[in-house]
C-alpha cells in the first residue's frame, strides 16, 4: 500500500461508524431512561410498529448552533428519531423524542426533522404519530426554537381533517411541547410517566404560591378525568402502543379513503332478546348504555374514547357488518344521561372527527335534557351545547339514531334527530319523545286543575297517564315521519345494519363556503 493510501478513509467504514453512533447514542442516557421505567426513543418505535418495518430518516443530522453550552456537544439525531413504518401492514410516519439528548428539547434541526416527516405524511396521505417526551423549547437556541414549534403547529392545522394525527405522551411535556398534541386528533398518556402542563409546579409556586405536584397538575389521570385533554389512559407503555394500534384499525389512512372493513363473523341478522330486559320499568332507574352497545355491535367489541371524562356521554369505535362506526350514546348511569358542558364538547369533537374521516355515526339516545343549574349557565352551556348541535348538523356521513327510552326537549333535537338530517331514526316501543317528562309537563299545564282537585295525587296520576298516552310515546313522532320505525329492541342490530348499507351509498355534499363559524 502506498504512503498516501494509509491515510485514506474507507467510506463504508465511516458510514458504519456514524450509523452505529447515531443508533446507540449515549449509553448513560439510555441507562437513566430505563431507570425511570421508560423506553428509549427507538425502543418505543420498535414496540409500536410492525416487526422490522421502521426505516429511520435523518439519523445523521446534528445541530448547527454555536450557542453557549452547545458548541462542544453535537450528538447525531439532535434529540428526535424520525422515519416511516407500518402498523397492521399500513404505512405511517413517526417521530419520537429522545429525552436522553438535551432533555428532548426542540431546536432548529430537531424541528426540521419533525416538519419533514409531517410533510411526508401529509403529501402521501398517511397518519402521523408523535411520541412525546420533551422539556419544550431549547433555551440555548432562543427564538429559533420558537419558530420551529410554530412551523409544527402550522402543519398540525394543515393536516387536520386530512390525515389522522396521534400523540403519545410518554414523559413530561411542557410549554410548546403540549400545544402540538392538543391540536392532534387523539392523545394517549401513560400513568406515572406522562405529564402535560404549560408551566411546571415550580413556576406556579413562585408566581402564585400554589403548591402542586407533577401528578396533581398535569398527570395522566388529571387529563383523562378532569381536563379532557387526553383520550386514552394506559398503565404501561406497551399498553399504550396496543391502544394506538387498535385505534388505527378503525381509521382510514386519510380523508380520501374509506375506513378499513373486515369480513364479519357476526351474522348481520342476529337478534338479541336480552335487549328488552335491559330497560328498567321505572324511568327513574338507571341502566348501562355500554351494555346496549355491546349487544348490538359486531362481536360485542367497543373501543371507548375518553372513557373517564364526561362519563354521562359515551363515545367510541365499533363495527357493524364489518364497517367501522363511531358510537355516541347517552349514559343513564351517570347524571341520568343529561347533557352538560363537558359532555357536549366531548361528543362534538368526536362527531367532527368521524365526519372528517368517513366514519358513519350511530347514536343511542336516552336523554332527559340539558343539565340545569347556575354553574352550567355561567360556564356557557348554551354555547357549548350548541357545539354538539352544530357538529351533528354539519356531519354528512351516514347518521343513524335509536331512541332507547327518552328524548326530551332541546336535547332531542341535538342528539341527531331527523330534523338535523339523520339518515335513519328509530325508537324502541317504550320510548318517550316529548318537550319534557310527563310529570313535569302535567305540573305546568294542569297546575290549577291539580290544586283544585279533591284528590290532587290521584288527579295528577290520571293526567300523567293521559299525557303519556297522547304525547310521551314514539307513535306521535312516527305518525309525522320524525321516526322511520318503531322497532323491537331485539331487532336493533339488523335494523341498523340494513340502514347503514343504504346510507353508505348517499352522496356527500358540502355547501360552497370556506367553512362555517362554529360556536367555539
**CATH T-level topology of the largest domain:** 2-enoyl-CoA Hydratase, Chain A, domain 1
Whole-number tally of structural domains: 3
> How many strand units?
17
Span between termini: 74 Å
Q: What's the CATH architecture name of the largest domain?
A: Alpha-Beta Complex
Superfamily at the CATH H level of the largest domain?
2-enoyl-CoA Hydratase, Chain A, domain 1
Helical percentage: 25-40%
Rg computed from alpha carbons, rounded to a whole number of angstroms: 27 Å
- The SS-based structural class is alpha/beta
Largest sheet: 8 strands, mixed
What's the level 1 CATH class of the largest domain?
Alpha Beta
Give the integer mean of the pLDDT values. Answer: 92
Which band does the percent of strand residues land in?
Answer: 15-25%
Shape: elongated
| Uncertain runs | none
Total helices: the number is 21
Amino acid at each position: 500500500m502506498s504512503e498516501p493510501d494509509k491515510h485514506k478513509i474507507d467510506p463504508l467504514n465511516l458510514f458504519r461508524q456514524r450509523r452505529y453512533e447515531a443508533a446507540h447514542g449515549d449509553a448513560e442516557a439510555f441507562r437513566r431512561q430505563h431507570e425511570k421505567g421508560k423506553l428509549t426513543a427507538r425502543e418505543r418505535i420498535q414496540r409500536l410498529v410492525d416487526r422490522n418495518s421502521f426505516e429511520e430518516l435523518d439519523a445523521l443530522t446534528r445541530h448547527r448552533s454555536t450557542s453557549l453550552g452547545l458548541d462542544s456537544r453535537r450528538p447525531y439525531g439532535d434529540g428526535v428519531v424520525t422515519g416511516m413504518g407500518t402498523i397492521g401492514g399500513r404505512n405511517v410516519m413517526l417521530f419520537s423524542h429522545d429525552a436522553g439528548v438535551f432533555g428532548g428539547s426542540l431546536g432548529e434541526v430537531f424541528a426540521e426533522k419533525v416538519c419533514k416527516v409531517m410533510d411526508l405524511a401529509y403529501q402521501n396521505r398517511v397518519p402521523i404519530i408523535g411520541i412525546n417526551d420533551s422539556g419544550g423549547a431549547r433555551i440555548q437556541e432562543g427564538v429559533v426554537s420558537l419558530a420551529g414549534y410554530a412551523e409544527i403547529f402550522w402543519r398540525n392545522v394543515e393536516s387536520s381533517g386530512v390525515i389522522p394525527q396521534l400523540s403519545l405522551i410518554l414523559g413530561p411535556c411542557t410549554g410548546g411541547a403540549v400545544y402540538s398534541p392538543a391540536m392532534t386528533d387523539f392523545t394517549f398518556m401513560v400513568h406515572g410517566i406522562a405529564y402535560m402542563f404549560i408551566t411546571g409546579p415550580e413556576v406556579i409556586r413562585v408566581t402564585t404560591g400554589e403548591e402542586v405536584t407533577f401528578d396533581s397538575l398535569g398527570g395522566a389521570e388529571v387529563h383523562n378525568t378532569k381536563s379532557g385533554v387526553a383520550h386514552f389512559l394506559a398503565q404501561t407503555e406497551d399498553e399504550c402502543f396496543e391502544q394506538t394500534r387498535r385505534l388505527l384499525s378503525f381509521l382510514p389512512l386519510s380523508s380520501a379513503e374509506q375506513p378499513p372493513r373486515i369480513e364479519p363473523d357476526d351474522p348481520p341478522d342476529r337478534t338479541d332478546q336480552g335487549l328488552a330486559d335491559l330497560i328498567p320499568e321505572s324511568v327513574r332507574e338507571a341502566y348501562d348504555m355500554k351494555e346496549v352497545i355491546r349487544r348490538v355491535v359486531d362481536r360485542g367489541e367497543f373501543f371507548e374514547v375518553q372513557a373517564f371524562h364526561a362519563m354521562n356521554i359515551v363515545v367510541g369505535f365499533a363495527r357493524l357488518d364489518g364497517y367501522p362506526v363511531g358510537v355516541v350514546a347517552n349514559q343513564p348511569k351517570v347524571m341520568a344521561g343529561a347533557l352538560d358542558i363537558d359532555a357536549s364538547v366531548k361528543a362534538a369533537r368526536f362527531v367532527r372527527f368521524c365526519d372528517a374521516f368517513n366514519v358513519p355515526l350511530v347514536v343511542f339516545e336516552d336523554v332527559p335534557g340539558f343539565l340545569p343549574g347556575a354553574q352550567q349557565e355561567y360556564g356557557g352551556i348554551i354555547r357549548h351545547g350548541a357545539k354538539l348541535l352544530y357538529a351533528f348538523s354539519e356531519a354528512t356521513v351516514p347518521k343513524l339514531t335509536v331512541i332507547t327510552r327518552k328524548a326530551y326537549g332541546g336535547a332531542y333535537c341535538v342528539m341527531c334527530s331527523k330534523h338535523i338530517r339523520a339518515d335513519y331514526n328509530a325508537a324502541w316501543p317504550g320510548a318517550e319523545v316529548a318537550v319534557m317528562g310527563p310529570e313535569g309537563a302535567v305540573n305546568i299545564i294542569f297546575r290549577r286543575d291539580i290544586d283544585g282537585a279533591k284528590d290532587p295525587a290521584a288527579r295528577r296520576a290520571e293526567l300523567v297517564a293521559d299525557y303519556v298516552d297522547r304525547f310521551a310515546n314514539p307513535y306521535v313522532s312516527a305518525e309525522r315521519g320524525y321516526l322511520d320505525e318503531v322497532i323491537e329492541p331485539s331487532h336493533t342490530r339488523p335494523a341498523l345494519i340494513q340502514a347503514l348499507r343504504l346510507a353508505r351509498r348517499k352522496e356527500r355534499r358540502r355547501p360552497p363556503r370556506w367553512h362555517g363559524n362554529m360556536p367555539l
